[in-house]
TrEMBL record:
Provenance organism: Marinobacter adhaerens
Keywords: Ligase, Membrane, Transmembrane, Transmembrane helix
Lineage of producing organism: Bacteria, Pseudomonadati, Pseudomonadota, Gammaproteobacteria, Pseudomonadales
Pfam families, per database record: Wzy_C (PF04932)
Transmembrane domains' residue ranges: 24-43, 49-66, 78-99, 111-128, 135-152, 164-184, 191-209, 215-231, 238-257, 338-365, 377-398, 404-421
Domain (O-antigen ligase-related) ranges: 202-354
Name of this chain's protein: O-antigen ligase family protein
Location, primary (coarse class): membrane
GO molecular function, one term: ligase activity
Compartment annotation: Membrane
GO cellular component: membrane
Membrane topology according to the record: Multi-pass membrane protein
Amino acid sequence: METEIQTIIGRFMITRFNVNGSSFYYYALLLIIGTFPALSLIIDGYGSGVWYLLGVLGIAAFASKPTIVKSIIQDRRLLLLLSLPLAFVIWSFLIYHFIDPSDFAKSRFQRHTLLLICIPVTLLFYHLNFRTKDLLLCFSLSGIVFLVYWLLDDGAGRLDGLVHAIHFGNIALIIFILCCGASALQTRRHWFIISVVGGAGSLLAFIQAGSRGGVMALVLALLVIGFWFSISRNRIRHFTITLVLVMLAAGLSINFIPPLSDRYDATIQEVSKINNGQMYNSVGMRFMMWDASLEVAAHSPFIGSGFSAYRTEIFDRIEKDELKPIMSEFSSEPHNQFLYQLASHGLIGVFLFLLLVTVPLFYLASEKTVSDRASKILALTLSIIFLSFLFFGLTITLFDQRRVLQSFGLLYSLTAWFLSVKQKERIL
């Protein structure tokens, strides 16, 4: 009976999802994946619905072909990549269950469980055998969505959606990077135009969102990539050129592009106010939040004090008149992923977060991982993205937002698929 069920599911997956160049379902799934990052920020419920759908399809892929698990077990790198989200969620559960079983902690732990869906989504990628060009190009659709959203916006303030403008801008930046990778691979004019339009739309959305942390993350990511290539090829002068070009581009952007220049001017003014003892501005309040999170971390540096500890510290300081009541609006997280992990999950939590971001980077940097041009471009694109996520965490908390977790999970699954031994042999 079990064999018959697996056969039926297998036939369903093969007839509807296997790639033959003209499969409607293949391109329908690319459409869903490609629009997912942008629409999840704009349409309420879309992100969760699609993320769960991809997870269910991944489970169906496993049910139709249980030998996938045997292949994964034989691929140590893929097995490690799939185990990291599981380890992260297990540690979050232990923190919630034994240290902080509050309702607030429960809501945060439930958000972290979204990372578990990375596992079946990776199986789905593994089963479908997407083409690299198609995968990169499909994210141009999110760029087009951003373009339409930008055109419909009244321009009165920073561009945002269901999330804060910082997260909105950061995800738009990720899509811009993917569109750049897609445009580098397209040989047909119409596909190239689509990737360029998508890149332009996501760039405009990023600029209008005014994410200062996003600009900083992109600059740092490009410098790290430039430094790595220079060291690996023993050509330090290339890093000097990269440094000059990146800093020149950043300088021109913050001086001549109004939304970015406005944010830069605001930063200079806020720093000046801090020097005069006026802390209640965007930068100054971050310093106060970071101070509170470090105070919490000092109580239990290794295992953390739970999801609610930082929140409790902020309210205690407000009650003692050490902070103004306005700080209660920033009591859920300290605008820093590393300090958020340190205060709530301890050094173990920080270590697990770093593994999630740096292990894919380590494998992507391996010369043995890539061979053909498409694979090299995808590896470079994903490397910049993971570095950007790493640096995003310096100025904002990432893993307390469902939509950020879902977009990160999708890209993590894509990377795990790309790095799998069997899939590397198939990439076209």
